[in-house]
Amino acid sequence: MAKYSLPHFEELDTENLEEFYEAEVEHNNDVIEIDLNFENKTIDPARLDLVKQFIENIATFDKQNKKHIQADYADKDKDTVKSYVEYHMDELDRKDLKEVVDFSLKTINPRLQLVNALHLIRVGLYPDSEDQFAIFDYSIDRDITDYLVVIFANEKGEMDYMTMES
User: Fold this and answer.
1) Residue 87 domain boundaries
2) CA–CA separation, 153 and 66 (whole Å)
3) Residue 37: what are its φ and ψ, rounded to 5°?
4) Where does residue 89 rank: exposed (0-12), middle (13-18), buried (19+ CB within 10 A)?
């Protein structure tokens, strides 16, 4: 029985994995969820070394992702973040948005305030998946909306693509 210790998680038995593990972690004065998802019962410890390194760099990846979110919003040819913002501006009342948007503020447009309010709430890790290694979920506030800006990344934290989901 081979054990592997990851930050924030219990010891994992690399020869008898469960499908799902989760942990809550402090990040930027908030709490985010990190979950591990396995398709197989066993994994090479070298893959878990990548997971460990990834977890240790979540703050760096979050900063990169926020740049991607800002760039997506500013790019006239992209629509993921614009669709997220427009949906919330059209569907929610001002009173629903008052926690994240100051409509009296004249220096920053309410739409840009929504973009700036997007923050990391979850990181899903899929170390033995052939598709994505990591999924980052961003929300303005889970009490306001179920919609997310989702960034899919490789094992180096590099964005593969971004989408809006609910």
Assistant:
1) 3-165
2) 13
3) -130, 125
4) middle
Strands 119-125, 30-37: pairing kind:
parallel
Cβ-in-10-Å burial (0-12, 13-18, 19+) of 50 comes to: middle
Asked if residue 24 lies in contact with residue 31, where contact means CB atoms within 8 angstroms, the answer is yes
State whether residue 22 is helix, strand or coil. Answer: strand
Q: How many structural domains is the chain composed of? A: 1
Which pTM does this prediction carry?
A: 0.96
Query: For the chain, how big is the Rg over CA atoms in Å?
Result: 18
CA angle 3–7–10, rounded 5-degree value: 45
Decide: 96 and 89 in contact? Cβ < 8 Å.
no
Task: Output the pLDDT for position 131.
Answer: 84
The pLDDT value given to residue 36: 98
